[in-house]
Automatic annotation (TrEMBL):
Gene assigned in the entry: tetA_1
Stored InterPro entries: MFS, MFS_dom, MFS_Efflux_Transporters, MFS_trans_sf, Sugar_transporter_CS
Domain Major facilitator superfamily (MFS) profile positions: 16-403
Keyword terms: Cell membrane, Membrane, Transmembrane, Transmembrane helix
Membrane topology: Multi-pass membrane protein
Intracellular or extracellular location(s): Cell membrane
Transmembrane segments: 18-38, 58-78, 85-104, 110-132, 144-163, 175-193, 214-236, 256-274, 281-303, 309-330, 351-374, 380-398
Protein name as it appears in the record: Tetracycline resistance protein, class B
Amino acid sequence: MSNMTSSQHAPAGRREGLVIALGSSLTIVGSVMIAPIIPKLGAHFGPVEPHADVLIPLAISIPALAIAVFAPLAGWLADKVGRKNLLIIATVLYAFLGMAPALLNDLSNIVLSRLLFGLAEATIMTCCTTLIADYWRDDERLRFVNYQVIAIGVVGAVFFPIGGAMGEHSWRTPFFLYLLPLVLVPLMMKVLWEPAKKAREAEKVAVSSDDEEGMNVVSLVISYLMIFFGMVLVFVETIQAPILQVHIGITSTTQIGSTAGVALLATLVGSLIWTLCRKILGINGCNVLLFGTLGLGLWILSVSKTYEMMLLGVIIHGVGAGLLVPNVMASVMKSLSKHARGRGIGGFTSSLYLGQFVSPLIVSFILAVTGVSINIGVAYMGYFGLALAVFWLSVWVFSREKPAILTNSKTAA
């Protein structure tokens, strides 16, 4: 791998990085870009589909379930047939399966198409992540992950309002945006290269022979639970905010899409300030901050009577969402032995997307059992986030964690 890396990585790193970053950003775009049209889907299918209140949120969130279940198989396929070719095939399928609901008239078929779309998303995510590991090493890899966060935030912030504006005409129109990734296919074919199989096998042997660190199973399970419940809270805003806006008289998909764009920009801010927050507060202190902002943001959304107040809730919530993934990922990496990193990150990814998938189901269950309004249901989720913040506050106080405990190179690796 070293010979190949020295000859191919240095001159082409930026081009490869750009293509992979754009490919990775398809996952965030695919998951939530159509959130602004949820009210129009409800208006169209509600009168004719008796289970529309369940199927519509499911159509938004079911790709997350597909990613959680299919990602391990996608990784196996990437090893068997190659990362580059599989990524290209998955990108083409992503485009056409993403566009398919625009041509469908049955809500159940739309849900099915979104499930298949999620399989393509899982493959894209797995291939892009694997190529990052193939192309970059150590600190350079970590720097590229930061570039990836920025790319995902910027691309998502651009496409959310565009999707909302296109939804003004018809709920079908935004789905045609999913054809845009087809322009990435020629770039993937030209810029990306397939790592040599023998080099990958040699690297696996080298990694497995360097296993001086044990695995902290308890910490790993706690991290999985954190990312699961954290993403449940994150997706409450994604799925329920458009509905809450309709309740206060905001029906413009442009405005709803702009709110989603602001939320993603706030998430980007949270990701960018995480390193500073970690140094000042430590990992447990960041847990307090992220769950506190997630809970407070949802509570503000639940009591908002104006668009401006709702934006405030979205911004506070978004900062917490941006802190969530890198902070929990740091704990996961600290808990894993080197030879178990691949499987450990796979568990992290599955937990993350399972949280996204069950989020609307949990809210629907709360509403069905308690009979409360959507505002009260969202408030309950906010209280849950604040309760988690209080729990981590007690852990933070009693653990007496040193704020800079993870700043040394060994822990960051």
